[in-house]
Amino acid sequence: MNDTPTSLEGAGRPARDHVLQIDQVDLVGGGRSVSFSPGLNIVRGDITTGKTMFVRLLRALLGTVPGRMPPEVAQVRYLRGRVTLGSSQWLVVRPVTTTGDAVVELARRDPSTGQLDEAVRVPATGGDGSYSRFLLERLSMPVVSVPKARLDPLAAMTPISATDWLGYCIVTGDELDAQVFGHLNTWRDQKRRWIFELVYGFYDRATAVLAADLRHVELRLDSLERENEIVAKFLADTPFGDRALLEQVLAERRRQLGDARSDTSATSATFEGNCRVRARD
Questions:
Q1: Are 120 and 106 in contact (CB under 8 A)?
Q2: Domains, the chain, ranges and CATH?
Q3: What is the pLDDT of residues 101-151, one digit of tens each?
Q4: I need a labelling partner for 35 at 20 to 30 A (CA). Which of 147, 154, 163, 221 fits?
Q5: What span, in angstroms and rounded, lies between the C-alpha atoms of 167 and 189?
Q6: Is the pTM for the entire model greater than 0.85?
Q7: What is the per-residue DSSP string for 187-222?
């Protein structure tokens, strides 16, 4: 388990380090640029005018590009945004692609001079060093992996990503009545419940560390058992495949070695006795 301790303040009193705000976004290739005002912003328009897709693109700017995008979005090649992360403002250029080698470019703006004073390029997806990890660290959010199966602490581990946090923040109309603290989709339900526990302090880090250590031991034991099975299959059709016979041969060799040592001791004693007799003569 990879766990960076942090503290999340109570609801209604968010720490400045956790502030995430989109100030402006440009749909490069789509010819659209939208600026946001501080506080609540409402996206409105007639049906089928792209409101939902626009929100999905905002989410893509800060996480994973959603799949099954409509054909009209194909012309949007990049998302270019001005984003506040904690107390710093960053310029973000994120390609609208799901390929594994995509790279996100970021540049920090110095609030006092307005100049760019730091620039980084990070993989759009992946583990350590990815865009998701960058966002979590800049926002002082927990960097933690949790079991995929909640009732099995030894289940495979999966990281809580920035996309997972955003997914918990986005609740559609048909989910308001029954899925705020869970979801009918099993995978989304798992992540949503873990994030709820992280936010409200129900996630027990000490227990998670012990479970991770136990998982490491269990995986090592499983690996050794598999290696033992492979060795047994390899030796099955050889003279070394019969364990009982090998132990019998080993016992016989040890007996013979003991006899040889006894003979050697007797010979040595006889030789030393003869030497003493000759010395007296």
A1: yes
A2: 16-203 (3.40.50)
A3: 889 999 998 877 778 888 999 998 877 788 999 999 999 888 888 888 777
A4: 163
A5: 11
A6: no
A7: HHHHHHHHHHHHHTT---HHHHHHHHHHHHHHHHHH
